[in-house]
Every structure is written in C-alpha cells, then in structure tokens.
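Researcher: Go.
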Amino acid sequence: MSRVTRASLWPRVYSLAKQDAYPLKVLRLGNAYRVVATDLHRLPRVTLEP
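Model: Structure:
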C-alpha cells in the first residue's frame, strides 16, 4: 500500500478545487484557495503521516 502524506495530496486538492468538485466550500481569493473553517470542523479527524 502506498504511503499518503500531506505533500502528495496537494496536487489532487488543487485540481478538485479548480473543477468545483472539492467536497467542502472553497473560496478563491486571487490565486489562493481557502476552505471555510466551519466545514473543516464538521469533518471527522484524519491523521496523516508528515
């Protein structure tokens, strides 16, 4: 099984955000993407290896 790290997830996260397919509300502010904090607090806690 492959090891999942935060760094390996970023390309997929940005791709989903650009396609409006991210499962949380994403705000685009200039070139930056921001996820609404209240949506993050509703997610179950997931621990990733650094």
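Model: The beta strands are 26-29, 32-35.
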